[in-house]
């Protein structure tokens, strides 16, 4: 399958240099994983769609986070909300270590609020709104800064 370039690529690259954690949300099958694996080939990819990966985290959380502690894409993180706590601890050890973790999640408002709250000041949140298969790519339409969005909702 041919990769479809996304206008979000430049924003992700920019965020990698200013945030320790980047969160990319969007509907399932919108192309989040494909985009990140294409853009960040040197990052380790870990999918929580795999029950064995979830078991590893549950059985040995310290070993898991020590093993996956730098330049990691954690895909489908909504399945393991307790991981946010461990990410926060690692990030707080060195707040200047930008681009350390990239998280993906399906679009769920409660999850976004939880991410924003637990990783406040540590994460740049973006959204991929569609896969580009059914809609033309135009401008920056597939980018939403959720920190701004959540701030507007609280007003």
Tell me what you see in this structure.
Helix 3 crosses helix 4. The protein has a single domain, classed as Rossmann fold, CATH 3.40.50. The chain is built from 7 helices and 5 strands. A 5-stranded parallel β-sheet has the order 2-3-4-1-5, sandwiched between helices. The protein is globular. 41% of the residues lie in helices and 16% in strands. It has helices at residues 8-16, 32-39, 51-59, 61-67, 83-93, 109-118, 146-154; strands at 21-26, 44-47, 72-75, 101-106, 123-127.
How would you briefly describe this protein structure?
This protein is an alpha/beta fold. Helix content is 41%, strand content 16%.
Descriptive terms for the model:
alpha/beta; Rossmann fold; 16% strand
Secondary-structure blueprint of this entry?
Elements: H1 8-16, E1 21-26, H2 32-39, E2 44-47, H3 51-59, H4 61-67, E3 72-75, H5 83-93, E4 101-106, H6 109-118, E5 123-127, H7 146-154
Helix pairs in contact: 3-4
**Ends distance:** 44 Å
Biggest sheet layout:
5 strands, parallel
Put simply, the count of helices is: 7
- CATH H-tier superfamily: P-loop containing nucleotide triphosphate hydrolases
Give a count of the beta strands, DSSP E runs of length 2 or more. 5
Order of helices and strands: HEHEHHEHEHEH
Q: Based on CA inertia axes, which overall geometry fits? A: globular
Strand order of the largest sheet: 2-3-4-1-5
Portion of residues in helices?
40-55%
Q: What is the second-level CATH architecture?
A: 3-Layer(aba) Sandwich
* Number of domain modules: 1
β-sheet strand percentage: 15-25%
Q: Determine the structural class based on helices, strands and strand pairing.
A: alpha/beta
Instruction: Round the mean pLDDT to the nearest integer and report it.
Output: 82
Would you identify the regions where 5 or more consecutive residues have pLDDT less than 50? 131-150
